[in-house]
Each structure stands twice: as structure tokens, then as C-alpha cells.
Amino acid sequence: MRDFFSGGPGGEGVRPAAVAAVAGVGFGLWALSGVYIVQPNEQAVVTTFGAYSRSEGPGIRYHLPTPIERVEKVPVTSLNRIDIGGVGEADVPEESLMLTGDENIVDLDFSVTWRVADASKYLFTLRDPDVSVKAAAESAMREVVGKSELQPILTTGRGQVQAQTAELMQKTLDSWGAGISVVEVQIRSANPPQEVAAAFRDVNSAGQDQESARNEANTYRNRVVNEAKGDAAKLIQSAEAYREQSVREATGDVARFNQIYDEYRRAPGVTKDRLYIETMQRVLANSNKVVIDGKGASAPIILPPDVFRPRTSPRPAEAPAAAASAQPSAPAQQGAAR
Fold first, then answer.
1. Which of 43, 48, 186, 296 has the lowest CB atom count within 10 Å?
2. What is the mean pLDDT of the chain?
3. pTM value?
4. Which parts of the chain are beta strand (E)?
């Protein structure tokens, strides 16, 4: 080292070339100190003498060495969470107790999930981002709850409250230029205050009993009304069917009477005989009486016992055949009738 920096053996002073070499190496190391790597989940913010200069995305980047430029990396894809109203059993009434639109008090705990959307705004706009996000979340939730009724918050209206709170939070943070994106607002619990929880449960129980009784009454009413409508429709259909049957029977009787009358006008005697025979056939069809023509009978007539048994009405298909077998001929019937 002495030989390198001095002028050689017996030489005096420092060699200028050695000093220049050392200075060059130092400058090279200082210049290379500006090389940095930005990870895929990060965004780099470069400042020049403390003032914002530019933002860099993932990859191998370079900035002027310190103290000219500095770089700060911010994770922009990581999710951050803030719990408001307490965590677990540790309840914070100052944060969780809120006044609803119908002048009730609700004990509400919720969480906010957020991420960095713009690294430069995130670093230079807010002094304490966590405190700012928590303040914006609590303010937005109180405003939304103050416009809502208690019952929907406790039952089916939580989704709407969460969506409205997230939207109002985002508007507030955007107006501040915070560079933060609200991912989700989730209500962890919503209950009446502990001091009135028992009375509130009694009120809910009474409301449920009322709703149950109303549903039963509606069910009974619907059943009775539907049955009455069904009976009325059945009666109307029966009446219409009877009317149609009566009209058709009357029309048929009129047409048959007109036909008989026309036949009677052309042959009165034959028509009378035919009507008489048809009437006697219908009368004697189910009778146990036996009509015998006594002309030419010389020996006793023996009738089988089956003749005097009760006779049943023949089926419609058998009626013509039975009538034909019981009537040998029209002249014989006329003689028997006489």
C-alpha cells in the first residue's frame, strides 16, 4: 500500500493517480447505491431533496444516490384491517354505542378492510393513515346508522348498512386525497345495550308471537276463501250443466213430439197402435205378469217357476233383444192386449 500511494522506493509524497483511483472507486460505489428492486406487491416513491419526484412500479430501478434522492417502498396489495367498537370481550362503548334513526341505541362493532391505492398520496397526505381511516369509518357508520331504524340493523338490513358505510367512507377519503381504497366494511355484531337487552328480547318475542298469529289467521282466511270459491264454482258449473241438460232434453222432447205429430197426421190409427204398444212394452218389461193368447189352446198350460221370480231391469244393450224375444209379432200382441 505504501508503494502504491507513494512515489516508489525512496519517493516522497502521494501519487495523484492513486488518489484518483480511490476516489473513482468510491464514486462508483456511491453511484451504485442508487440501484434498488421493487417487489410485485410494492410501489416505490422517489423524493428529490425531500420533495416528491415520481412513483416506480415493480422491477429493478435506479435513483440518484443519497442525499440527492431517496426511495420509500409501500405495499399496495396488502390488506389492512381496523376494528372499531372493540375486539372480542374488550368492548369500547365510546365507539360502539350509536343512535339510530328511530331514536334507539345500538351496540355495534364492525371492521374495515382497506389497502393503499396511491402510494404518493398515502405517504404525503395523511400524517397517521390508521387514525384517519378509523375516524372516517366511525363517522360514516354513525351517519348511516343515524338514518336507519333499529330493527333492520339487527336483522336483515346489515348488508345495506355496510354498503352505504363503505361508499360514504370512500367519498370522505377521496376528498382528503388519502390514496386509500376501502375494500370492505363488515358488521361483526349488532345488539341492543346490555342494560335493556332483556326487555328488548321480550319485545322481540311478543313481535314474533304477533307475526305468527297473523300468519295463522292469513292461512285460515286463504283456506276458507279458496274453499268457498271452489264450492261456488262447483255450484255454478252444476247449475250450468243442469240448465244445458234441461234445455237439450226439452229440445229433444219437442223435436220428438213434432215427429210423432207429423206421423199422426199422416196415419192416425197406426200411430196410436204404435204408441200403445211401446207404452205397454215399457210397463210390462219389468212385470211378473204373463199374458197368454187363449185362442186354440186345448191343453193346460204349464209355466216354469222362473217366470214368477223378481226380474231385474235389463241393461241398455240387452233391452232390445229382450223386448224382441218377448214379442213374437205385432198381431199376437194386439190379440193378447185385446
1. 296
2. 80
3. 0.53
4. 35-38, 42-48, 51-56, 59-62, 69-75, 80-84, 86-87, 90-91, 97-99, 105-116, 180-191
